[in-house]
Amino acid sequence: MTENEKNPRRRPGPARLLLGALSGALAGCAALAVAEAVAGAVRPQAGPVVAVGGAAIDRTPAAVKDWAIRHFGTDDKLVLQLGILAVLALFAVSLGIVGLWFRRTAAAGVLLFGAVGALAATGRPDSTGVTDALPSVAGAVAGAVLLYVLTGRLERRTEIGAPPTVPSGGDWDRRGFVIAASTAVVASAGAGLLSRSLSGAGGRDAVASRRNVVLPAPASPAPAVPKGAGPRIPGLSPFVTPNADFYRVDTALVVPKVDATTWKLRIHGKGVTRPVTLSYDDLLRSDLVERDITLTCVSNEVGGPYVGNALWIGVRLADLLAECGVKPPSKGGPADQLVARSVDGMTIGSPVEDVMDGRDALLALGMNGEPLPFAHGFPVRMVVPGLYGFVSACKWIKEIELTTFDSYDPYWVKRGWAREAPVKTESRIDTPMPFARPTAGTVMVGGVAWAQHRGIEKVEIRVDDGPWQEVRLAAEDTADTWRQWTFPWQATKGGHTLTVRATDRTGAVQTEKRTRTIPDGASGWHSVVVTVD
């Protein structure tokens, strides 16, 4: 008799291993479904996938984040969540197989995973306290109990008092396993539906509050966009980027849905002689300013898509700060950094001097004629022309603290990015696309150039290693918006490289030197390679 035959615990057949794996998978699904249902009642951001994902984002090196944005774009959050689910699935399946031998150990493993989720949820910057641990705890308990029950149905009990065994076939509780598994599937589906219902109910007030917003006519409307500011050429980015197409780069795995009727903004800190707490209605009653402003993400590679232009309406931030007694450092103010805090725990630091130097720095309420979309910061966000978003564009803002750069490092600075980051002079070729095959003759080349708050003076294009040639610049709206450009190229057959560079109104020419996005934005000339037929 072999050792395995003496100890049947060591020899489950392939069918039993598959059932063990299925038990783990069902337990994992049940744990997630229960956790998300509880999160719907507590707070969607407290769900284990979101909490663990957020913790992973917080601890991911800047270079890795930059790589993820570069390769996955705005789908980087989806990729992260799918990765977490894949790891969870492997973990659950493994525990199901382990449970064929060690039921209690496997159940304890589920509880351990729940503890990780609970710690991640309560350790997030936006955590509301110990209640954020409830979803992970409830899910883990449900998953552990189910795994213990399912693996128990796969055991055979020989006689009273004898230890349970895992046979390769024969006497195991098929009926009990099927009933338990079916019940788990139905209960998990029900918990999933409950989760969606509760999450939807939680955001219903926020959705209603946005739907009821009527943006007043601005006291200072935007100047009319000059005729010819947006040439209509196939493939060229439109002058105004539609809200649905505007880039989104942030760390929020779940877009916050904030009820504008209960939203508050607190302004306090160094040099604030009159601290205030403002409501959304307070801002609506203020003198609103409307401006076209181009925003750029620091993660934008040379020639990348993370730049867009929109019509914003909001309150001048400098005016609000002045009403609170704030003075910029150049006028003796003690604070040189404005730290904006978001409802999701994000902190973004901006230079007080830049915010109060006369540029149209806004607390924006509207975007392209409508209240801010939730994904872009409803009810209120910051917009500061001339600064990359990571040092200016706080979405879902709830607090502004005046402090100093020496005394506080916001989120991105702690992760190796620069404290101050003015937008670099950049340009991009939109058409023809890389590796396009245009026909010989006149080929219209077009693109955009930007140097927010300085403006674009000149754009030049080079074909292969030929001389730089000035392109035709579209009419300029303001120095805070990008500028379209076109060039009728007399294309000859063969392969060609088109390269573009811009010069801003300070006379600075866009540098050829290639740099990474970290720590203060990419630089270099954008080129495309085409083959002319």
Secondary-structure blueprint:
Layout: H1 3-6, H2 14-42, H3 48-59, H4 62-72, H5 76-98, H6 103-122, H7 134-153, H8 174-211, E1 264-269, E2 276-279, H9 280-284, E3 289-296, E4 307-316, H10 317-323, E5 337-342, E6 347-351, H11 352-355, E7 362-367, E8 370-371, E9 381-383, E10 397-403, E11 426-431, E12 441-450, E13 456-463, E14 469-470, E15 472-473, E16 483-491, E17 494-504, E18 526-532
Parallel strand pairs: 1-10
Antiparallel strand pairs: 1-2, 3-4, 4-7, 5-6, 5-10, 7-8, 7-9, 11-12, 12-16, 13-14, 13-17, 15-16, 17-18
Helix pairs in contact: 2-5, 2-7, 2-8, 3-5, 3-6, 5-6, 6-7, 7-8
Strand order of the largest sheet: 2-1-10-5-6
Instruction: Assess the beta-strand content as a share of residues.
Output: 15-25%
Amino-to-carboxy terminus distance:
78 Å
Quaternary organisation: single chain
The secondary-structure class comes to alpha+beta
Mean pLDDT: 89
| Low-confidence regions | 1-9, 158-162
